[in-house]
Amino acid sequence: MALRRKLLLNFFKFSDIIILLVSLLLAWFVTRTGQDPNLATLLMLHVELLHIIFVLLIVFLWELIFHGLQLYGSRRLESRIREWKDIIKATTLGTAAISILGQLFNINITGYFISIFWLSSTILTVFSRSFLRFFLKKLRRYGRNLRFVLIIGTNKRAYEFACRIEKNQELGYRIIGYVDDKIYFPNGEVKLLGNLSNFSAILNSQVVDEVIIALPVKSHYEKIQHIIEKAEEQGIIIRYLTEIFNTKLTKLRISTFAGFPLLTSVTKIDSYWQYFVKRTMDLVVGFILIILTCPFMIAAVIVIKVTSKAPVLFIQKRVGYNKRIFSLYKFRTMRVGAEKEQEKFQKLNEMDGPVFKIRNDPRVTKIGYWLRKTSIDELPQLFNVIKGDMSLVGPRPLPVRDYNGFDKDWQRRRFSIKPGITCIWQVSGRNGISFEDWMKLDMYYIDNWSLIGDLKILFKTIPVVILGKGAS
Q1: Contact indicator for 392, 454 with CB cutoff of 8 Å
Q2: Per-residue confidence (pLDDT) for residue 169, from 0 to 100
């Protein structure tokens, strides 16, 4: 799953901090041993506030340098040697920063200390990254940490690229099929999902993480431009085996795959360290909220059980990241079989678009009305957050039925990031705004995403929940 893949890749950042601290201690220990071989004296550390501030600044600069050299992004498409070169650049810059900070803080840092630190931090970082590559390769061979790829074109270049993918299973790419007006492969059978005019419909019905374009530019320019726009609308990563095209929302970066130059177009946030912090915040705050709201959840379970023989939890299939389907958990607030009655009450729907909402829904039980008013029914979704299906902040996950009612492709870009428990819509009137405005708010969130923005939305959600604004 892509969310676990990101967590696995970004969780490795912790090892860089550990390696930094271990290297500092090792350099200090070796340097002090040369000055005073008495172990008892060495173990008597005299730590001052100045030293703590010095180390914290080093940690901050170290992470900043590693991020600047893109060492926290996925490197599955780059060679091991290229990564090692970037590691050496990062540790060298970090070591220089330590030397400069030592002068500013008037801390005696010798050349011997610097040499030991640089050597140990470089070796340990190279080893840890090599171990990560080895671990991920093993993981991908067992069908985990995968990226699902749709190839546009069935020509010789597409065929050669597909062969490279098949030969490098450890990179975790799996071809779901091809799109072209006819098959041009020199030999062999291919899984043709449709022609170029059906591209949008294919995207809507398939789990697609990346699109590889292998069409000749001169004869297919307009069709390729159309494909780019449709993939861009849904926030799907685009990689090119051709030349550069005009993109409106995406960020471009150059990478290589087995010798093939690729231009990657990314619509969503392309900052792995921020994703890592967001996921860490989800886990930490999610666990804290589960502990704090545990009495409310226990009370809800008891009340539902006492007043009804129906299951306590209502589990519904929702559309998540890149249209992956997951099971969303809520406390039951309606009578059993309420979903089947939805068509019966369609005329009472108060929302436009494909979404179904009724303020005084007759299917809601008396206890369910109270659970909805206080938003207690949403609390089990904290477990979805811990699982990685959702985030605390993000576009609300919609039922499969609502997704099937979408009639504009640009609206599907909301699925290019992880869905959340709360978002701008929840703090902007909730049921009081139109479906079109709701989708625009989701697009605004994606295009202007930041960690500070997430924190603001979380704090704004608190009074909305307490006052019951827009709840139904």
Answers
A1: yes
A2: 74
Nearest-angstrom CA–CA distance, 381 and 290: 10
3-class DSSP assignment, residue 190: coil
pTM, whole model, 2 decimals?
Answer: 0.61
Q: Strand 313-319 to strand 398-399: parallel, antiparallel, or no bridges (unpaired)?
A: antiparallel
Q: Which one of 180-184, 192-196, 320-324 scores highest in mean pLDDT?
A: 320-324
Of residues 469 and 293, the one with the higher pLDDT is 293
Report, at the CATH architecture level, how domain 147-266 is classified: 3-Layer(aba) Sandwich (3.40)
Ranges for all domains in the chain classified under CATH 3.40.50.720:
147-266
CB of 383 within 8 A of CB of 329? yes
3-class SS of residue 243: coil
Angle at 413 between CA 411 and CA 272, to 5 degrees: 155
Task: Give dist(CA 423, CA 290) in Å, integer.
Answer: 19
- Identify which of 129, 52, 42, 48 has the alpha carbon closest to the alpha carbon of residue 85: 129
86, burial (CB in 10 Å: exposed 0-12, middle 13-18, buried 19+): middle
Instruction: Identify the residue whose tokens are 């550390």.
Output: 45
Please name which of 49, 55, 47, 48 lies closest in space to residue 94, comparing C-alpha atoms: 55
Long-range contacts formed by 264-267: CB under 8 A, 24+ apart: 264/237, 264/238, 264/239, 265/228, 265/232, 265/237, 265/238, 265/239, 265/240, 266/237, 267/232, 267/235, 267/236, 267/237, 267/413, 267/416, 267/446
Residue-wise pLDDT tens digits, 80-137 = 788 888 899 889 988 988 888 887 777 778 888 889 999 999 999 999 888 877 877 7
